[in-house]
Hints:
Blueprint: H1 5-13, E1 18-22, E2 31-35, E3 38-39, E4 45-49, H2 54-62, E5 64-71, E6 77-90, H3 93-103, H4 109-120, E7 124-128, E8 132-137
Antiparallel strand pairs: 1-2, 1-5, 3-4, 4-7, 5-6, 6-7, 6-8
Helix pairs in contact: 3-4
Amino acid sequence: MALSVxxxxxxxxxxxVGALSVVEAPDRAPLTVPVWYRYTPGGELWVRTPPxxxxxxxxxxxxRFSLMVQRTEPTVRYVSxxxxxxAIEADTPERAREMAGQYLPAGQxxxxxxxxxxxLGEHVVIRMRPERWFSADLGSAG
Length: 142
């Protein structure tokens, strides 16, 4: 059963690991990678990545991407969104903390942000406006 607008937006705003897909070349299947993301109902979705990463280059070239999130308990539910990139901008320590804070316990956020900055380098924020939504709750998994 398809989710209502409110249900799908609320579900997407929860801290799931997303599967980001982007067309990398016309003769290949899309590049699909796991990502942390942020979404506020009614707003844009955003991800962070190093600026020269394969994912960033593919998103810049395609100008759009899709993201799918799912769960299996207590019921099988998913939301998939696709849309155009609205901005690629420099990341900030505040955004890094906001993202990490959604996925990590509070006591681990600063350590992760420091690790990321020293080991993984700078990041960019890529914003997407969801245009196409696919969602369902398929009932219990059992």
